[in-house]
C-alpha cells in the first residue's frame, strides 16, 4: 500500500479516535459512529513508522527504521561512522542514559494491541474482516521481536514479559530469557502464516507473506550469531535451523528489508531530519581513512567531497576548542547526499549483512558453504546495493591484502567484521551491537572521553526516571549487571 493512502487512513483513524470521546452528554457517553476498537492496518503502519497519527509534524522516532533504531545518531558516533563538527559531547560519550518511551509507548504498544485484538474473545471475531487472524499475529510477532531485539541490545535486561500489559511497575526480564523467547517467537511466526488475506497497512512488504518469512528467518540467523560467545551450541542450532528453513532468508538485494521514505515532513528519511538547517556531522576520519586506504568505491556514496573536491575525514572525538581550531583551518566531507536525502531507504536487513553472517557461520564450521565465496558475494551485494559495482575494480579490491579472504580463522573473522562495518553504513545501531560482540574493526576511543570509563560505551544506562518510577524493579535489574547500571557495563552476550 502506498504511503499516501496510509496517511489518509491515519487521518481518518485520528478523527475516529478523537470522536470517540466527544459525544453528546448521555448515559453511555458513546458515539455510535466512532470506531469501537482500533483499526489494525493503521496500527501496523504506525508501528512501522513510529509516527503517531494524531501528532502533526512528529518526525520519525522509534519505528522500524527511525532515529532510535536504524537512524540513531549516537551509535553512528560510537562506531565512528561520523564525527561531530560543532558540539562534540556525544562523540566524547557524555550521554550515558537513554529513554525508551518511544519504543514501548508507540511501536511496541501498537504491535501488542494487534496481538491482543486477535487473541481476545471480545475482539477476535471483528478482526477477521481485516485479514487472516494467523497472518495478523505472525506479522505483529515478527516486528515486535525485531524491536525488542533492539531494545534489549541497547540496555540488557528490560521489561519484557510484564511489559505492554498496563502494568506501571513491570519487572525486568533477563536478556538471556528475552533472547530465548525472541527466537521462539520468530520460529513460530514463520510457521503461523496461512493462505488467508494479509493485513493492509504493510509498507514493508505490501502483503507478501513470503518476504515476511525471509525477514523472520534472517533475523533469527543474526540473533543466533549474537549468542556465539555465550551460548555457542544454541547459536549454532538456531542459525542452522533458520538457514535451512524452506521459506528461505534474505539472499539477494531483491529481498532487502527497508522502509521506503517519502518527500514528506513526517515520513522522510530520519537521517535527513538530522540535517534540518544544521551542520553537526562530518564523515569521521576513521571511516574515511578505511575507505581511501582500500580504494573503496562506496566512498562516493558514503561521503560528499569538500569544497576542494577532496574526501577529507573529520577527526573523531576532539574537544570543542580543538574542533574549532581544526575546522577553522580545514574543510571536511559531510555524509553523502545519497545517504541523507529525504527519500533514501531505511535499510533494516540487507543481503550483504546476511551473506557476511553466513560467511562467519562457515568460518565457525556451522554450515558447509565456502566462506570465501560468501564473503566476496557479500561485498558484491553491498556494492550493488549502492550502485557502485564494477567488475575490474572489484577484482583489484578483493586482492588487497586487507580485503583478500586469507589467513587464520581469526584474521578471516576480522576481515568479515570490517566489511560488516562498511556494509551496514549508516546503520550505526546494528554496527555498534556487532562491534561490541566481535571487537571488529579495531576502534579506539577518543582520548577526550567524558564518561567514567574513558572507553567506547557498551550499553545505555537505564532511563533516569526508572530509579524513581519503578524503583524496586530498577534496583533489582541494576544489581544483576556486573559493574552496575553504567555506560561501560556489558550486557549478557557481550563478554571479553
Describe the structure.
This protein is mainly alpha-helical and 496 residues long. The chain folds into two domains: 1-22 and 36-54 and 98-248 and 464-496, Serine Threonine Protein Phosphatase 5, Tetratricopeptide repeat, CATH 1.25.40; 74-93 and 250-460, Serine Threonine Protein Phosphatase 5, Tetratricopeptide repeat. It has 21 helices and six strands. The termini are far apart.
Sheet with the most strands: spatial strand order: 1-5
Task: Describe the main β-sheet briefly.
Answer: 2 strands, antiparallel
Rg measurement, Å: 23 Å
Mean pLDDT rating? 91
Name the poorly predicted regions. Answer: 1-29
Q: Given the C-alpha coordinates, what overall shape results?
A: globular
CATH architecture of the largest domain: Alpha Horseshoe
* Distance linking N and C termini: 46 Å
Total number of distinct structural domains: 2
Tell me the CATH topology of the largest domain.
Serine Threonine Protein Phosphatase 5, Tetratricopeptide repeat
Determine the strand fraction and express it as a percent band: under 5%
What is the number of beta strands? 6
Structural class: mainly alpha
Assign a percent range to the helix content.
40-55%
**Number of helices, where a helix is a run of at least 4 consecutive DSSP H or I residues:** 21
Order of helices and strands: HHHEHHHEEHHHEHEHHHHEHHHHHHH
Using the coordinates above, name the CATH class of the largest domain.
Mainly Alpha
Signal peptide: 1-25
Keywords: Lipoprotein, Signal
Protein name: SusD/RagB family nutrient-binding outer membrane lipoprotein
InterPro entries: SusD-like_2 (IPR041662), TPR-like_helical_dom_sf (IPR011990)
